[in-house]
């Protein structure tokens, strides 16, 4: 049999193909020699934000229902985008706000979008917008009220809103919005950003009707807050509104928690009462007329009152003396009874 | 294959070639079968990772040193606090290679006091180099994009301008680490590479409220050395802080309480979350530093269980007065 003689071109192509295969094989051997299976596992668990766009590049972040590429469209006049919009879900929120994520996660958090903007006249500073989708207005109110700053000024941008020297915070439907300036002096720009966001939070599905149940006399209207869980250190008490009162010069906190049924309210009242007694409290007799089942407890020198009005569990927390605890209890119980008619 | 080839190929030759090809395919298949790993790579168990333990960077004869300076100027305060301890020269010697662990956790401006103040960092770097350090490295593993965090906090530019190098976290810098006697930090990814080659470590932390732990101070500052999905540790926050304090035995910690974040920590956001507490704490005992820092936040060690846990673990003492701290007025 006569052997076929290859031409030089075929030989060259063959050698080139073999050389490429050898290079690939060598590369694989080198990579394999450095392969650390332990580290491989760690890195698959670690969500590594990319230098360009931060944690939003992580796979988990990308599973969030997408926000627009710019958080605001159009961007208010005179501002420009400093960084692309980022979105975070419940798994990645802590990559943006660290340990504060738990506050949102325990209050129905769905997603958060954030973006930085810059003003031409202040290129070294910036304003960052955070829009938290909390699922419904009640949750949005909860995180808004839990973080309310002591020296905040009421803002008229939304019913639940306030501003500080460098920031604006408000509830917009199911959204809780923070607009934070890196320094003072951006109040006009912050307000412009806020106005461009108002109305995007959708129609409220679960409101905060309990606010109207608090009697107005002595009420510090800016103090009303909704606590999602572990209220007063008792893990059985959740979804509870608190409000600060001035009772004859003494600061007292009132609380209201609407339960599913009157029976559930009674059981929770009983459990909370037991919790107080287990932690050093002792029952004290009322000096005023209160409905049957109402409890007054002295604990570590302060007074706690607990009573029910239909589905409402209510009471007084940390009154410095018995008299203001009783006075507020009577006013609150009367208001609840009359509004419940 | 052209016509002449077909003509020249005998039946015998065809069977020989077919047999060779079949043998090659069978060999490749057998090799693939033998090398096939049905479970894939694993991080622990079948192949044990080489777990590292951080060295002890403390100086035995300097244990229990503490100074507290009051004043609103960070530069004056840190110098005033170091002075009664003998200056930075007491801790940093000629030729030392120093690692400074800052808090660059988020891309937040210095004005909001959520991160290490760049001006203070620059001064600490300068003092280290002045004391004879041959190098100063600044690092942290932020939760946000590291480049943005180091840039927007001002920490990166401040460190570089003062003569330090900045190490940003990336995959190759992590090693699995464990805390001897620890229950949580076991074969967990640690930002380890920056520690290689250094012989002194300084923790430089801001004083902050923290939603989960109650406070973020010098011990919590080591949290930034953890890689992986470290937020799982928030569920056991006091024990993880204790273990972090067990893990890192620094040469010195500095707690910047010049402006404290009193509420809405650890990220804050409003200037109204801040309070001028005008205090700088320098100590070789991180438990004592945090115990004193708690008082600036209006809290006690009983409000912050990680402090007493760290004390019980032998890291330091919560009774900072027992260290007889030097108290000085800055400027």
What would you note in describing this structure?
The complex is a heterodimer of chains A (341) and B (331). Chain A is an alpha+beta fold and 341 residues long. Chain A has two domains: 62-197, no CATH class; 209-338, TM1622-like (Protein Transport Mog1p, Chain A, 3-Layer(aba) Sandwich), CATH 3.40.1000.20. Helix content of chain A is 31%, strand content 26%. Chain A contains nine helices and 15 strands. In chain A, the strands form two sheets. In chain A, strands 1, 2, 3, 4, 5, 6, 7 and 8 form an eight-stranded antiparallel β-sheet that branches. In chain A, strands 9-10-11-15-14-13-12 form a seven-stranded antiparallel β-sheet, sandwiched between helices. In chain A, strand 3 and strand 4 (122-133) form a beta hairpin. Chain A starts with 7 loop residues before the first helix and ends with a helix. Chain B folds into two domains: 2-36; 52-329, 3-Layer(aba) Sandwich (Rossmann fold), CATH 3.40.50. Chain B has 331 residues and is of the alpha/beta class. Chain B is built from nine helices and eleven strands. Chain B has helices at residues 3-8, 11-35, 74-82, 118-130, 146-152, 155-162, 237-247, 286-296, 305-312, and strands spanning 66-70, 97-101, 135-139, 165-167, 174-177, 188-191, 200-210, 214-216, 252-261, 274-283, 326-329. Chain B is elongated, with a radius of gyration of 27 Å. In chain B, strands 1, 2, 3, 4, 7, 8, 9, 10 and 11 form a nine-stranded mixed β-sheet that branches. Chain B has a two-stranded antiparallel sheet with strand order 5-6. Helix content of chain B is 30%, strand content 19%. In chain B, a hairpin with a 3-residue loop joins strand 7 and strand 8 (214-216). Chains A and B meet through helix 2, helix 4 and helix 5 of A and helix 1, helix 5 and strand 5 of B.
